[in-house]
Amino acid sequence: MRIVCVAVVGKSNNPLYIKSFETQDTMKFHYIVHSSLDVVDERTKKTSQGTAEMYLGLLCPTEDYKVYGYITNTKIKLIVVMLDDMEVKDADVKSLFKSFHELYTNSVCNPFYTADEPIRSRKFDKDMEALVNPIIK
Q1: Which residue, 13, 48, 88, 111, has most beta carbons within 10 Å?
Q2: Residue 80 three-state SS
């Protein structure tokens, strides 16, 4: 499993954080993340009648990538784009999202962070790279 992009998207589908781990075609990842939000909305509407699962699973596979989603209790969407080069277990992706959610929670608990504003924390960026780097290799 090789992560190429991670994103945090706000309640109004505004990007709060998008980090690409590939230097080429960063705009392509913005497009992939944005287009996957339709699937997130569709799945959250289906689960709003019953028990809501935070992990949304595989949102949309593309030719080269797999896009996975997770939604928090506050309707913040966490998106991970992975290279489609090997089979990925759902348990591994769930574990990744739990760590991602914890990093996000720690970042927004900062008293200087304004809710629903882009995340510009260097610590969040550094921690995100530390989370993803062992997976990239």
Answers
A1: 88
A2: strand
Band of the pLDDT at 137, cuts 50, 70, 90?
very low
Q: 50: alpha, beta or left, given left = phi > 0 and alpha = psi -120 to 50? A: beta
Residue 121 DSSP SS3? coil
* Cβ 22 vs Cβ 105: under 8 Å: no
Does residue 3 contact residue 132 with C-beta atoms inside 8 Å?
Answer: yes
Strand partners, 20: 5
**Average pLDDT, whole number, for the chain?**
88
- Placement of tokens 């209790």 in the chain: 73
Closest CA to 20 of 135, 137, 128: 128
Q: What is the enclosing helix (H) or strand (E) of 77?
A: strand 77-83
- Separation CA 80–CA 92 (nearest Å): 12
Tokens of 60: 């949309």
85-91: long-range contacts (C-beta < 8 A, 24 or more apart)?
85/2, 86/1, 88/1, 90/55, 90/57
